[in-house]
């Protein structure tokens, strides 16, 4: 039987070390909502979401109460809207009406984000993909809960450089139309390479076409728990360090597995995957940067940071994989800047630059995330940043992403406040040497040689 | 069996166990295991109970024990046992 020490250990993780389940995300397929009449399409979408997810928030709250574990977010991911709206939408404004419907549905069921205002254009863009992408700035400006993502490349297809160019412009435009809110729209827009179909985390969540009609995916978290565990083995060798991370990741993931099973059972919806990510929040003691520092760095960004992160990411996976029957999504350490107090401090101390963050993205689960950059950064420069990240993802067969916020009217030295889980960020300097000639070449970068495995 | 773990933490005083046990007896909740320690004046108790024959729902018991804890100045938490089993047993 369970003993008092085990009970105390679990409750200490929850009460003092910020252990939580970061999100229960319900994936809903909207393919059966498609209609050539826009009003009918909007009605179908609203009805399907509010029917499938009507008990999602309530069930999440019940599980929280019974097991005593906080479930921070209840969210929804949907089929990329560019596919669903293809036959009904003839202008970007048509797509914006869908965004508003989604926003209304999200509000009705009480979730805090809905992801999937997305297009998958890793090889080419259809007319409807392009219309959706062009509607993103207005869609994000006129809604509250919608997250948008665009997949511009993959290891199998190469990189769609036309889409990369367009996304640089779209990020700029989104910043401009939400300038009154410190360009907040860009915090809900991510450009991906190798985007997974089952990611429960925002802003990149969407419900891929390879998925079932409705599923439950769960994202676990717990950087604080790993950090506290490492404090007890300070200065031990790498074997001990790795064992400690693995054991902790196992325990964290088991809680996620339990929550996923319970949610799936109570909602009568199949369980999809557990995403084993270490996702930080701006709360003190809930930071991935703090773990890197505990491993032995003065600041995140110091030489050795990439090695420490590679080790951390690998051990989290090794510990977590055994704890769950199905692991998927992004599964690794997240390194957003504005959502991690340790990262913010490292930037302010001058230890962490965008270039170092780019190196770190080669060994962790996502990419350049929640980075505020000067508002006067050129669209082509943003496209260049996206192309670099996509190339890292394409060649290394991993997911990479760019979520940068060119904050209108602000420059290096200023700070921007997004609020809540999105946190705050100092504006980081960007290399401003011109890259417009490579960005303006039309076409796509071919798939790398090692993708030809057949 | 519907096992629930009850933890009681707070400043030691007379009658904490009596209060909790009386409540559980009235509610028809069977106690399977109790362990208790005092660490530097702080009372720390864990109980494993079976709610199969309980007259109260989980929510009611949680709310009522929370209230009882407030009265005697300790914090009382109820959690389903599975969260501990999942984390500490393979």
List keywords for this structure.
A: alpha/beta; Anaerobic Ribonucleotide-triphosphate Reductase Large Chain; two-stranded antiparallel ribbon; B: alpha+beta; Alpha-Beta Plaits
Structure overview:
The complex is a heterodimer of chains A (454) and B (90). Chain A is α/β, with parallel strands linked by helices. In chain A, 44% of the residues lie in helices and 17% in strands. Chain A is built from 15 helices and 13 strands. Chain A has helices at residues 4-16, 38-52, 56-67, 81-84, 92-109, 127-141, 161-177, 223-231, 238-267, 288-296, 305-321, 341-348, 354-361, 379-396, 436-440; strands spanning 21-28, 71-78, 113-120, 146-154, 158-160, 189-193, 214-220, 271-275, 368-374, 400-407, 415-417, 424-426, 444-445. In chain A, the strands form 2 sheets. In chain A, strands 1, 2, 3, 4, 5, 6, 7, 8, 9, 10 and 13 form an 11-stranded mixed sheet that branches. In chain A, strands 11-12 form a two-stranded antiparallel sheet. In chain A, strand 11 and strand 12 (424-426) form a beta hairpin. In chain A, helix 6 packs parallel to helix 7, helix 8 (223-231) packs antiparallel against helix 9 (238-267) and helix 9 crosses helix 11 (305-321). With 90 residues, chain B is of the alpha+beta class. Chain B is built from 3 helices and 4 strands, in the order E-H-E-E-H-E-H. In chain B, strands 2-3-1-4 form a 4-stranded antiparallel sheet, sandwiched between helices. The radius of gyration of chain B is 13 Å and the shape is globular. Chain B has a single domain (3-88), classed as Alpha-Beta Plaits (2-Layer Sandwich). The longest helix of chain B has 15 residues, at 58-72. The model of chain B has no long low-confidence stretch (mean pLDDT 92). Classes of the chains: A alpha/beta (454), B alpha+beta (90). Chain A binds chain B through residues 1-4, 6-11, 65-69, 251, 254-255, 257-258, and chain B through 5, 7, 32-33, 35, 37, 44, 46, 48, 58-59, 62, 77-89. Chain B: This is UPF0237 protein BN656_00535. Chain B: Belongs to the UPF0237 family. Chain B: InterPro entries: ACT-like_dom_sf (IPR045865), ACT_dom (IPR002912), UPF0237/GcvR_regulator (IPR050990), UPF0237_ACT (IPR022986). Chain B: Pfam families: ACT_6. Chain B: Residues 5-79 form the ACT domain.
